[in-house]
Amino acid sequence: MSRNEFRFVVDGVDLTPEQQTLIAGEIQKAGLAALGTANAKLSNPLTLGHGNLKLRPEWYGLWVLDGPFAQDLGQKINDIGFWMQR
Fold first, then answer.
1. What pLDDT score does 68 carry?
2. Which CA distances in Å does 22 have to 11, 64, 77?
3. Mean pLDDT, consecutive 10-residue segments, the chain of 86 residues?
4. Distance, CA of 84 to CA of 28 (rounded, Å)
């Protein structure tokens, strides 16, 4: 399984927590749109992430997992009750 990481860095600009959250959300949307534009072949994607710095700063962002690991992790999330049918 391969891993590709893309970063967006803003240096020298003071941003409020609200601005950081807004920008993070927009970057998440752009990243997902870019996967579609690139015709990425995902078999069973699981998307995890958040823009809440207070929750877990090290988890700030968005992860798109695919393949067996995504299947296993998704099942574990379902088992503990975080999955919500839409």
1. 84
2. 17, 19, 26
3. 83 90 85 90 79 63 81 83 60
4. 20
End-to-end CA distance of the chain: 30
Q: At which residue do the structure tokens 């993070």 appear?
A: 24
Per the listing, tokens 């299947």 go with 71
CA–CA separation, 27 vs 6, rounded Å?
10
Q: What is the DSSP string of the chain?
A: -----------S----HHHHHHHHHHHHHHHHHHHHHTT---SS-EEEEE--TTT-GGG-EEEEE-SHHHHHHHHHHHHHT-----
Amino acid occupying residue 30: A
| CB atoms near residue 12 (< 10 Å) | 4
